[in-house]
Specification:
The structure is a single chain. This protein is mainly alpha-helical. It contains eight helices and no strands. Helix 4 runs antiparallel to helix 8.
């Protein structure tokens, strides 16, 4: 009996996640919603975070270069980690696996787990917020919108986004702990 309980649990979880993806992805049928989330998602491709690092380095003469370097190293480790996980776990994106889910933006790679956009959004929000708390009112909603965009656009499952957020938070807090030594 115990042998069938775990697979049945995962099947129920998969079904619930697929249903949630289908429901959230309906937003892609509205051009304004699709355009908003596609733009937010594109910002998370890297350009926004590179600009943030450059601004921190230039505009904070005290420790900006150190904070920007911490963000760059953490970002590079995050990129390497999520690429490693994606190539090992090979979870297909929702729009590939489920015919009812529309692809609202071009994916950067083939696989879904974990969400690199969410990983970096959470990581950079925590790192920037630790040194520049006045940025949090802008960065937190942006990070949440980036995370949501991944599911709305049919590119990730909610568990991909949750995993990305957990990994990003762990990397950022580890980086802050090492940086304070």
């Amino acid at each position: 009996m115990a042998d069938t309980a775990l697979p049945a649990f995962w099947q129920r979880m998969d079904h619930a996640e697929q249903a949630l993806c289908l429901r959230v992805n309906r937003g892609c049928r509205r051009p304004a919603v699709r355009a908003f989330f596609a733009a937010v998602s594109r910002a998370g491709d890297g350009s926004l975070w590179y600009a943030l690092m450059a601004a921190v380095a230039v505009l904070d003469p005290g420790g900006g270069w150190h904070n920007a370097l911490m963000m760059a190293i953490t970002g590079a480790i995050g990129a390497a980690l999520y690429k490693l996980l994606k190539t090992r776990l090979v979870r297909e994106r929702p729009f590939i696996s489920h015919a009812g889910i529309l692809c609202g933006a071009t994916p950067l790679d083939r696989y879904s787990f974990p969400s690199g956009h969410t990983l970096h959004a959470v990581s950079f929000t925590i790192l920037a917020g630790a040194h520049y708390p006045w940025l949090l009112p802008a960065l937190v909603p942006l990070a949440l919108a980036m995370a949501a965009s991944r599911v709305v656009l049919g590119l990730h499952y909610p568990s991909d986004v949750a995993a990305g957020a957990i990994i990003g938070a762990a990397l950022a807090t580890t980086s802050l702990a090492i940086g304070s030594i």
